[in-house]
Amino acid sequence: MTYKSKSILGVIPARGGSKRLPRKNVRNFAGKPLIAWTIEAARQSKYIDKLIVTSEDEEIIEISRRYGCEAPFLRPADLAQDNSSGMDVLRHAIEQLPGFDYLVELQPTSPLRTSADIDGCIAQCVDMDAEVCSSVGEVGKNISWCFTLSEEQTLEPVLSSVSNGAASIRPMYGLNGAVFVARSQWIASCDDNYIQQTLAYPMPKSRSIDIDTEEDFLLAEALHMVSRANVSGC
To answer: Which of 7, 62, 103, 155 is most buried (most C-beta within 10 Å)?
Structure first.
């Protein structure tokens, strides 16, 4: 374990009170609780020294332990609300388990991310001496081809002008929530406005889905089945 002598704490934040898709973290996804896929990918990481789940929910904690993930503390209820700051959740984890050089946040809503994605993001952050690195996925449409509707229901470009060469504009990316790596000291003192400081680790669109709705869940399961069929057919 470790990477270039850096100690690394893996943290899976999983609260029980999800609203748009209730109990999604423990819902059956392709034969296992959703959170189990993240635990298994993290346990296969070559660089994570210690893996924990932070949750206020006893069922999530029980399932996490069953799949080999530690749950050394119960997350305070005030850090498990709809408006709770994700960075505060990570700071609380660091306070409970100090002494690690880096923290890796792995959301359980990204079941298609692999251990190679995790280790790649860690290595990029450490190799480039960055404070923070986040995985990203390519978004479907370049903003140059996006429109709003006028009151007359005609198309109006989001950008002030669209050139004929718009198709050649560089791809656009969005945070996909799969892997977030940062120095522990940076997490302890940063605010939530950190995007401009963030190093990006691109992931394929096929592994970048972040489950938030029923449609996301079904799409992720379908992509998983396709991926498994492709592997079986090799």
So the answer is: 103
